[in-house]
Amino acid sequence: MNAKAESPTPLTGVRLLLAGAVLALTNFMVVLDTTIANVSVPHISGSLAISGSQGTWIITSYAVAEAVCVPLTGWLSGRFGAVRVFTVGMIGFGIFSVLCGLSTSLSMLIACRIGQGLCGGPLMPLSQTLLMRIFRPDQRAQAMGAWSMTTVVAPILGPILGGTISDSWSWHWIFFINIPVAALCAFGAMRLLRHAETPTQPLRVDKIGLMLMLLWIGALQIMLDLGREHDWFADPMIVGLAVIAGVGFLVFLAWEATEDQPIVDLRVFRHRGYTVAVTSLFFAFGTFFASAVIIPQWLQTSLGYTATYAGYATAFNGVAAVVMSPIVAKLSTKVDPRGLVCFGIVWLGMTTLLRTQWNSGADFWTLAFPQLLQGFGMPFFFVPLMTLALGSVDPKETAAAAGLMSFLRTMAGAIGTSVVTTMWDDSSRVARSEVAGRLNEGHTIDALSAQGMPLDQVRAIVAQLVDKEAMALATTHIFLLSALAFFGAAMIIWLAPRPRRAADTSAAH
Questions:
Q1: pTM for the full model?
Q2: Its membrane topology, per UniProt (predicted)?
């Protein structure tokens, strides 16, 4: 099929509404899948007979695959056309969702989640690109506002849907529910968006850059996921992975800095404002995402919460975010974005400090209230940071800068999850030793034995109590470190100059 005109005739009427709904629903589904599995990890771990830390690979594998594919979106759409790539990506996402639901082993599930991430990575930026092509210029701001709401609402509904489905049916259905949505969106794209196809040309892909990126990211993620089980650098395999990741990263940087058409345009880092903004984003988002992973696991494995109620408790952070997002968007044009970002990240740190007061006897609202407060500060962090970063680069670099920003944000979430879950497990072991050393075991055993319990049951109860308290101490320790990370990320932002111009954030994803 020949390439269409650069600026297609915008759609109108019902056809426009249906096409916009298809694009918004696609974005909703892809973002939903980043959080829907968070509360289902204990269910999946139990079903596949794996540990909780291994269960987090289901989250990180999707995130890493999505991050790797995002920088390829521009090349794919330029080579094959945005609508074709969008449609094929949607079909692939649906197929891998089926395979995820049918998985019977951890290796199969991780492989299929990687497939999901590779197919889903281009869908979010392409949904924005196509949205801008089907709406008139005077309608685009309103359309992007509606599209942005799906990005905010999906992470809220993800834990609730994941928990409810896992408890009511089985974890397999958190993937199966994607099938009708993927089929509907793929059909809608073929019927409604055909005229919005982008021009194509035989573009050259930076194959060496792509292979280097896959090499160092893959080695790094495997090292982070397997390190704890292999005693980290006491194992030659982990040392080898670390060397591959480090050397691969340095070679990748050198290659991309000198390549004419790089897979990742590193030249945008010459802008101090952009570099500072994405550095702050990396640390703050990695910390935020990691806490979103460990909280539901702790609630289910230690406090006896069902996946449904763990989803309710963690979803509160999105309620205030929905309300504050449009307010912060207006403030971003009137107030120094550095101040807004600093306030937002400090707010995240303060609400994280509230979690250091949690204990094994905390009730539902004690756990949910910091989540609700946290949502108030999230838009102050995300919205102005995007304005600051993209306002620091040249207009022609906006798309490349936005793609790299999305890549780093997703990688931060995956790396942060791997690091924090390892620290959490190690901290719980240390805490267990300390609790066991201070426990008046003899008095406790005598008191329980006096109630007629056999010795084996008494010992099991004591061990369960020690484990529960140790996990609570480890969790609060992680939150203390997380708060310090947030405060550090907030201070970094002041190294950036005030943006020179208003940013076109439509390229961000």
A1: 0.76
A2: Multi-pass membrane protein
Mean per-residue pLDDT for 152-179? Answer: 82
pLDDT tens string 235-271: 888 899 899 999 999 999 888 888 877 777 788 888 8
CA distance linking residue 435 with residue 453, whole number of Å: 23
Tokens of 342: 């600093």
Distance (Å, whole) CA 153 – CA 206: 36
Mean pLDDT of 441-454: 65
pLDDT at residue 445, as a whole number: 66
> Which whole-number Å values give the CA distances from 3 to 20, 75, 91, 119, 136, in the listed order?
22, 15, 22, 23, 21
Q: What is the DSSP secondary-structure string of 15-79?
A: HHHHHHHHHHHHHHHHHHHHHTTGGGHHHHHHHHT--HHHHTHHHHHHHHHHHHHGGGHHHHHHH
Angle, CA 411 vertex, CA 423 and CA 269 arms, to 5°? 120
* Topology of the domain comprising 1-205: Growth Hormone; Chain: A; (1.20.1250)
Identity of the residue numbered 383: V
Structure tokens at 300: 């289910």
- Written in H, E and C, the secondary structure of 83-152 is HHHHHHHHHHHHHHHHHHHCCCCHHHHHHHHHHHHHHHCCHHHHHHHHHHHHCCHHHHHHHHHHHHHHHH
Are the C-beta atoms of 192 and 19 separated by less than 8 Å?
yes
d(CA 386, CA 382): 6
Of residues 308 and 487, more confidence is placed in: 487
Same fold, 1-205 and 270-509: yes
- Per this entry, what is the length of the chain? 509
Question: In the chain, what are the domain boundaries?
Answer: 1-205, 207-262, 270-509
The H-assigned helical ranges of 259-363 are 272-301, 307-315, 317-331, 337-355
Average confidence score pLDDT of the chain: 80
Write the CB contacts of 60 (distance below 8 Å, at least 6 apart in sequence).
Answer: 221, 224, 225, 414, 417, 418
d(CA 312, CA 369): 11
Enter the DSSP assignment of 358: -
Distance, in Å, from the CA atom of 42 to the CA atom of 300, rounded to the nearest integer, reads 7
User: pLDDT band for position 302 (50/70/90)?
Assistant: confident
Residue 308: predicted pLDDT: 80
Contact status, residue 468 vs residue 358, Cβ threshold 8 Å: no
Classify domain 270-509 by CATH architecture: Up-down Bundle (1.20)
Of 245, 272, 286, the closest CA to residue 500 belongs to 272
